[in-house]
Write a structure and sequence with these properties.
two-stranded parallel sheet; 23 helices; elongated
Length: 626
């Protein structure tokens, strides 16, 4: 029996046993009750409602929303004069096509090498068109290792070229993203420290735009899969650096370790992020995606590699000793199982009971310290949250502006126990404090749009592996946001960039597979992602036009075939007529030959008769002479 058959038989047997168990049936009913309660919730409905309706049109949002009209005119109204050329100089095209790396990466990034052509070709035009994709790929790959300002400069370059080469997707998420950028800029200008806040607002705006840039650039399954590969490869490099730090005994700052409560804890992994909690937060996005690729990868070797990378990243997360990240990952796993197969959720109970016996004592004591208020980190956060709520009470309308400088100027007047902190250690508190109530609502709105699009895709996905990837990405974002309850996860700008790129990858994934399903079914209004953008509409229109063109070509081909058949019939009839004519001519020729022979015979007979007459006359004349 093969491994797959054994595993399938094991799962079937497990499900049958669970269905016959009173305990498991009771747990299933409980989770069904929770699901029904959530389904009737207005707030939950905002994040999970179906994004589509039977009469939904892709272009409806730009027509109905004034914001969408403005954003569409600004972003897509510019001339898109940078296009992919049709040909290159022959020698250069052959050289590029001969390189496995260039040809392979170009095809996956949807910037294929043009066909060879004699003379000069559009080399510069291709460079301008391919440049944003190649630079964006480097950003996705190198985010864990490159400095923040280098990444920002690269994204600015990408944005400029994308504005003149590709169409942006103007959907609900895009509207909220652009509104969030506007709110950020206004908050920066009105900040208590505008000089630093405006700089942070500009940097944040560029990183927020990465979501729309990725969605605009990734128009094929190959390009999205390649960006997945780059994202996981970058996380792998960070994981290898973390393992190296652990092996050589690299010691983090003493501020990250409570020596009194945890004397056995000597080191916490930071990799390239400088902070164990920040690094753990980054891993919350990378681990679920890497794990999903175990199912999503096509080749067995790639599945093994994805499994090994997932194990590497899990080891790194454990060695960060970040309690919030431990809980966030457990929540993400629970969400994933609950969406994919709720019957597996009950198996988590014995797994949770086994955790104390499976992990080292240092990690287990670290988890238990969450409920210990004598832990300096726990007490520290409680005091900061109280002070932050007092700040929100006075600045809930406009906020105080972005950055450490603005927060440090205000917080000392509201802090408790003379505790200093550069931020509120809570993502939602920090957004509220910096941007005010409008900024918080817009931020929650863009999250709702992401979850609605992903939930719609998961609800309508027919392929198991697609559902696994989409569910894993949703679970990763939920885990990330859960960690945001205990820490300000955007404090590190590379994590901020990673988060918005991750949103873009998720939406791009649903977009390309949604287009394939829509085109296959020839049913644009029921596209599973709920897109209402120019780009997707063009793709579907092109597909319909292609189908109409193919129909016309088929009809024309049938007519041509009928004409050919008629011509063949006419040719055959003509050949038959010619054959009959030839036969008639042959018959006539034979008749003529026969007539000639008969005529010759008659002439010969007449000649013979004439000779006989002459002979008779001569014989008659002789007696007379005698």
């Amino acid at each position: 029996m093969s491994i797959n058959n054994f595993f399938s038989a094991f799962i079937v047997g497990l499900f049958r046993w669970m269905e016959g168990s009173l305990f498991f049936r009771g747990m299933t009913k409980f989770f069904d009750f929770i699901k029904n309660v959530c389904a009737g919730s207005f707030i939950v409905g905002i994040f999970t409602a179906n994004e589509n309706s039977e009469n939904y049109e892709f272009s409806e949002l730009p027509k109905k929303s004034i914001f969408a009209k403005i954003f569409n005119a600004i972003l897509n109204g510019l001339p898109k004069f940078i296009t992919l050329p049709d040909a290159w100089p022959g020698w250069l095209s052959d050289l590029a096509r001969g390189s496995w790396f260039i040809n392979s990466v170009s095809s996956r990034l949807n910037t294929s090498i043009p066909a060879p052509l004699r003379g000069s070709g559009g080399v510069i035009q291709w460079v301008f068109f391919a440049l944003p994709m190649w630079v964006l790929a480097m950003v996705v790959f190198a985010t864990p290792v490159l400095p923040t300002m280098v990444l920002a400069g690269m994204l600015m370059l990408v944005l400029v070229f994308v504005l003149f080469s590709r169409f942006f997707v103007i959907n609900h998420l895009a509207v909220f993203l652009l509104l969030f950028i506007i709110v950020n800029m206004i908050a920066g200008v009105l900040s208590l420290t505008p000089q630093t806040s405006i700089q942070i607002a500009l940097l944040t705006s560029v990183f927020v735009m990465s979501t729309m840039i990725i969605v605009a650039c990734c128009n094929t399954c190959e390009s999205v899969d390649f960006f997945f590969l780059l994202f996981i490869a970058g996380a792998t490099i960070a994981g290898l650096i973390g393992v190296y730090q652990h092996l050589v005994g690299y010691t983090a700052t003493a501020a990250w370790v409570d020596r009194d409560l945890h004397p056995e804890l000597h080191n916490r992994l930071i990799s390239t992020f400088g902070n164990p909690n920040v690094y753990g937060t980054y891993l919350l996005l990378a681990i679920p995606l890497a794990g999903a690729c175990v199912v999503y990868a096509k080749r067995f070797l790639f599945k093994l590699m994805a499994l090994g990378i997932t194990g590497l990243l899990l080891l790194n997360l454990l060695l960060t000793y970040s309690r919030g990240c431990y809980l966030a990952l457990a929540l993400a796993v629970g969400i994933f199982i609950l969406i994919m197969e709720k019957r597996f959720i009950v198996l988590m109970l014995p797994m949770l009971l086994a955790v104390p016996f499976l992990i080292p004592d240092t990690m287990w004591m670290r988890i238990l310290s969450i409920f210990n208020t004598s832990d300096t980190s726990t007490a520290f956060r409680l005091f900061i949250w109280q002070g932050s709520l007092r700040v929100i009470g006075d600045f809930w309308m406009t906020g105080i502006g972005q950055g450490i400088e603005a927060y440090s100027r205000v917080y000392p007047y509201y802090g408790l126990a003379a505790i200093y902190s550069p931020h509120s250690h809570n993502l939602f508190f920090q957004v509220f404090i910096e941007l005010g109530i409008v900024g918080l609502l817009v931020f929650l709105g863009l999250l709702a749009c992401f979850f609605r699009a992903m939930a719609t895709f998961i609800r309508n996905a027919t392929e198991f592996k697609l559902k696994v990837v989409a569910t894993a990405m949703v679970a990763a974002v939920i885990g990330f946001l859960f960690q945001g309850i205990f820490d300000y996860v955007f404090y590190n700008y590379r994590v901020l960039l990673t988060f918005y790129m991750f949103l873009g990858l998720g939406i791009a994934f649903t977009k390309v597979h949604g287009i394939q399903k829509s085109v296959k079914n020839n049913n644009a209004p029921i596209l599973v992602t709920g897109y209402d953008d120019v780009d997707v509409a063009n793709v579907v229109d092109e597909a319909e036009e292609t189908k109409e063109t193919e129909t016309i070509i088929a009809v024309e081909t049938e007519i041509e075939l009928e004409e050919l058949e008629i011509e063949e019939v006419e040719i055959e009839e003509l050949e038959i007529v010619e054959l009959e004519i030839k036969e008639t001519e042959m018959v006539e020729t034979e008749l003529e030959d026969m007539e000639s022979e008969e005529l010759e015979k008659i002439i010969e007979e007449l000649a013979n008769l004439a000779l006989d007459d002459e002979t008779n006359e001569e014989s008659n004349e002789k007696p007379n002479e005698e």
